[in-house]
Fold this protein.
Amino acid sequence: MSTPGLQRPAPTPPATLDALTRRPVRDLLVELAGHVVLGVAVLGMALPAALILGDAEASPYRPMPTGLALALLALASVLVLMGHRRRGTDRLPLPNLHALAMGVVLVVVAGLWWASTWSSPAPSPSALLLAVFATWVAGAVSSVLFWRRPLPRAQARHDPLLDEDGPARVLAALAGVSSYRADALQERLGVDEPTLVAWHRQLVDVGYATSHLRGGRPWLDATGLGRTALTDHLAAVRARP
């Protein structure tokens, strides 16, 4: 019994495959929403402290109650986790240098927060808010800059398997992310589960894709060999007269 979609004769146009390598915009919106929620929660703790510090003589600094601070962070974490559960892809981890820069900003924020409770005179409220705001902005900017996984450099090399519509579309979608949840990829490509399984199996058989289980759900991945094969194939197709 043939699987629907495997007998489509016309290869997928390069423009369509290029579009599939881009993560859905909703992924970016979910990440930005997470940064906004965390930013609001952190500012909710930092702003009252900064305002009090600005008038330290009239009102000695008292930290926000621990229970309220923990509640704000818990609420932010729950909202972010809910958003990420709805997202069907994993993006490539941030580059090491960027992650290091984020860590430095966070250490500065923690240091200012600690100093504000012990030092005399307390640090400038504007410095505290600036550090918090810098952390918030750095996280949001990183999501915009790194939301698409870069493809490897291409050397024109035609691959007959990728002339088939199904495997080419699956590999293109997988190439732009670190992992894709199977049901989310199925929804994006508009196919049923048996069709996606058959297409993915063809890629697995030649070493272009793999899969793993997470939370009892299947996630699909492109291998380095598969991502290279896709870019090489697209270069060969574009070079055709």
Remarks:
- The first helix runs from residue 14 to 20.
- The two ends are 37 Å apart (CA to CA).
